[in-house]
Amino acid sequence: MPLAMLTSTAHTTRAISEGDTAIRQPISTSRRVGFVQLHGGSGLSTTAAAVASVLASRRSGRVLGVDAASGPLGFGWHAGTSDPAAPPIPTAPSERRLRARDGADAVAGLPQAASGLFTLRVGDAGAPASTASWAAEVSPIARFFDLVCTDWGVRPWQSDLAEIADSSHVVCLIARAERRAAEEAVAMIAALQGQESEPRVVLALVDVANGRRRDAGRVLETVAGHAGVPVLGIPFDTARAAGRPARSHSRLAAARLAGTIVSSAITTRVTAAREGVPA
């Protein structure tokens, strides 16, 4: 048993190390990544915070995580920059950030996690942020970060999902690793890619039901065969869901997703629609 445990640990360490090549790729200009789910309870905030934390800890440039969703135990809590006992209020406005001229101005007043990730909460307390309020806070400082990762929460297509797509270089769709939820997410891919900005799309299927790993694996395999975009699985992790350090299999999955997102961000083309969002 000790040998098996050692072998498993060595395999995980090697896989994470190999993923660094993708994660550390140079980025010529700031890239925006939008994490979004069509229905609640899909593990969005947990996954987005894990990916952003991996990017911040392994890249030399700054990474910003933006909480544009609602709920007290959201992105900042999972990233380690907010207290669950504190009211879920937006980050205090800052004239330095609004008129940022350098990196020090851009991070003024922003909490920083142990991973190095800076976090910003936008919108009204307890309510999802609009794309306009997001742009007002993020646009003045985005250029000082390699990557801006935004947790948009639940965004049905009928509201502002199209605007989110047009303001993102990469859209990471999060869905439950269940057949119906996964197929619904796949159906949205063409609509997202059809936006003027033509964002890259990545699909992450999260196993949120402990004990159904076999079902989740079959769904992942089936969907990956016809989605037309990268499809990655995120395993169930009771530790991460409870706000404790993620287990090795979850860290590996987050690293793989982070590397896929960086690769997708680099290959996207910066269109006029996206350039219209002030940098």
Structure overview:
This protein is α/β, with parallel strands linked by helices and 279 residues long. It is built from 12 helices and 7 strands. Strands 3-2-4-1-5-6-7 form a 7-stranded parallel sheet, sandwiched between helices. Strand 5, helix 8 and strand 6 (200-206) form a beta-alpha-beta unit. Helix 8 packs parallel to helix 9. The longest helix has 22 residues, at 2-23. The chain starts with a helix and ends with a helix. Residues 3-7 have low confidence and may be disordered.
Quick rundown:
The protein is an alpha/beta fold and 279 residues long. Helix content is 43%, strand content 15%. It is globular.
> What class do helices, strands and sheet pairing give?
alpha/beta
Q: How do the helices and strands follow one another from N- to C-terminus?
A: HEHEHHHEHEHEHEHEHHH
Q: Describe the main β-sheet briefly.
A: 7 strands, parallel
Helix share, percent: 40-55%
Enumerate how many helices there are, as a single number: 12
Q: Kindly state the mean pLDDT as a whole number?
A: 85
> Can you list the strand order of the major beta sheet?
3-2-4-1-5-6-7
**Amino- and carboxy-terminal Cα gap:** 53 Å
Strands, total number: 7
Rough shape? globular
What is the percentage of strand-forming residues?
15-25%
Instruction: Note poorly predicted spans.
Output: 3-7
Any idea what the radius of gyration is?
Answer: 18 Å
